[in-house]
Amino acid sequence: MTPRQKRFSMIGLGLAALGIAAALVLNAFNSNLVFFFTPTQVANGEVPKGQSFRIGGMVEAGTLTRENDGLTVHFVMSDTVKRVPVTYKGILPDLFKEGKGAVAQGRLSSEGTFVASEVLAKHDENYMPPEAAEAMAKAKAAGKQSSDTLVVTP
Amino acid sequence: MSESRATWTKYSSPQAFYPLAGKLIPWFAGLAMICLAAGLYIGFLVAPTDFQQGDSYRIIFVHVPAAWMSMFLYVVMAGWAAVGLGLKARPSFMMAQAIAPTGALFTFLALFTGAFWGKPTWGAWWVWDARLTSELILLFQYAGVMLLHASIDDLRRADRASAVLALVGVVNVPIIYFSVRWWNTLHQGASVSMTAAPKMAATMLSAMGIMALGFWMYSAAVALMRVRCIILERERQASWAQIERGA
Question: The complex's ipTM?
Answer without folding.
Answer: 0.72
